[in-house]
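Task: sequence design from structure.
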């Protein structure tokens, strides 16, 4: 039987967690697979590995969501690295790992990334990691138990936004210019612009107009 070669990327700012992932991967059907594993410790080193012209496309990427940012390239999290991979290596299967347990955050990750795997770290055991990896390798989607339970409790068609999004919509509805909103909300202009883009995607605003965003948000009682 021919051995299948796979390139794996692991990005996490905790070295012992990286070692745990590597141990699980190397024990997965070693007679059938040969894994080439590359690792990075933060958004900057992850970005450099992904964008290196000499890097072969990855087959699977394990990405922690919360890591030190690479602000120069506007890479603030594992989600941003995932989007970078989606642009440059569209066939790569992405497994996101997080400590977040807020429903809004989980639903946002699924909506914007649609990862092959989404794992709450508190759910993670060695056996669970092997099981998740097996599901993803077989082209299935894997959500850990906490993710499944959260999604079960959420109304299917509900739209949920956080406090910053609500404040952005409020100020847009009052005619506040986008570059003035940081005077009222303690996040950067870049973050506000990114949130507005995400809100337009969430609410299916085709025109890209802020007025249309406000109109639809009002109709859905988000402001």
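Answer:
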């Amino acid at each position: 039987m021919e051995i299948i070669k796979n390139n794996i990327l692991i990005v996490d700012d905790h070295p012992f967690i990286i070692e745990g992932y590597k141990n699980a991967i190397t024990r997965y059907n070693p007679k059938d697979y040969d894994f080439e594993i590359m690792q990075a410790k933060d958004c900057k080193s992850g970005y450099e590995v992904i964008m290196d012209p000499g890097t072969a496309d990855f087959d699977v990427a394990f990405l922690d969501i919360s890591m030190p940012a690479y602000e120069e390239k506007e890479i603030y999290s594992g989600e941003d690295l995932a989007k970078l991979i989606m642009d440059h290596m569209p066939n790569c299967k992405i497994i996101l790992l997080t400590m977040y347990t807020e429903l809004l955050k989980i639903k946002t990750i699924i909506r914007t990334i649609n990862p092959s795997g989404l794992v709450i770290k508190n759910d993670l055991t060695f056996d669970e990691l092997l099981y998740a990896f097996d599901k993803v390798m077989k082209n299935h989607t894997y959500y850990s138990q906490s993710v499944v339970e959260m999604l079960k409790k959420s109304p299917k068609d509900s739209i949920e936004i956080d406090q910053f999004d609500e404040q952005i919509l409020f100020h847009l509805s009052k005619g506040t210019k986008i570059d003035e909103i940081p005077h009222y909300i303690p996040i950067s202009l870049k973050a506000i612009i990114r949130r507005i883009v995400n809100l337009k995607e969430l609410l299916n605003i085709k025109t890209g107009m802020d007025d249309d965003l406000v109109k639809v948000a009002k109709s859905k009682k988000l402001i």
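The chain has a mean pLDDT of 91.
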